[in-house]
Design goal:
The protein is an alpha+beta fold. The protein has seven helices and eleven strands. The strands form two sheets. It has an eight-stranded antiparallel β-sheet with strand order 4-9-11-10-6-7-5-8, covered by helices on one side. Strands 1-3-2 form a three-stranded antiparallel β-sheet. The N and C termini lie far apart (88 Å). The model has no long low-confidence stretch (mean pLDDT 91).
Amino acid sequence: MKEHITISQLSQLMNVSVHQLRYFEEKGILYPSYTEKNQYRMYGLDEIYQLFHILLLRKLNVPVAQIEECLTFYTADDYNQLLESSLEKVRDEIANLKQLEQFIHKVLNEHHNSIQQDNEYRIRLLGPRYLKLWFAFESDHELSARNLFEQRPAPPRLFENDLHYLLDSGQVKLCYETTEMTETADCVLEEGSYLCKHFSVTEDAEIEHEIQQLEHYVAQHQYDCLSKIILVEKSYLSMFDNNKLQYEIQVNVK
């Protein structure tokens, strides 16, 4: 009974394509134990363990061109450093995936809420929000691509966050939320009961109309306003309607 296996059998055993095994041979990192007269490549235990070593290095994202150097010259310390470096990259990837998971949950929840309250005023109890100022512009000026370009660098993950437009004394302050504490925030939106309404627009004039409607609703229902009007852009929700931008208008009331 033969102690060696063919390239096809090695492929099945290690779940690697024959093409990949031939590629490793071409790159000089895995050779058969011997080749039979019929040109069948035959592999033994040594080659199986070498292939395992190669696959482990590939799993650690070591380029194929560097594997020969690893197999030939790497010491235990080199491998320890390689694993430490790979571990750090994995941790970064996990952190990025967790951020993505949180963002997906946020989009799904916000979309669900927007459907429930679309074009209806509701009272929402909101906790304190700490905002950083990106830039300000005159309220009679429309926001443009040039504005955004000139105010670079943009906040991190710009359009994954809620952008807050604070309307104050003829100016619009464009802010974004931060996890930093009060003393480092440029503005703090106090905890309270906020009169809110979700809406979508295609033109800036529609936003002005929504502001006027809110002011009329507040006066009609005799609310006392404890804050200026806040416009929150939820641009990530626009994926559900490519032709419109999604906003929530808010004001702290009692």
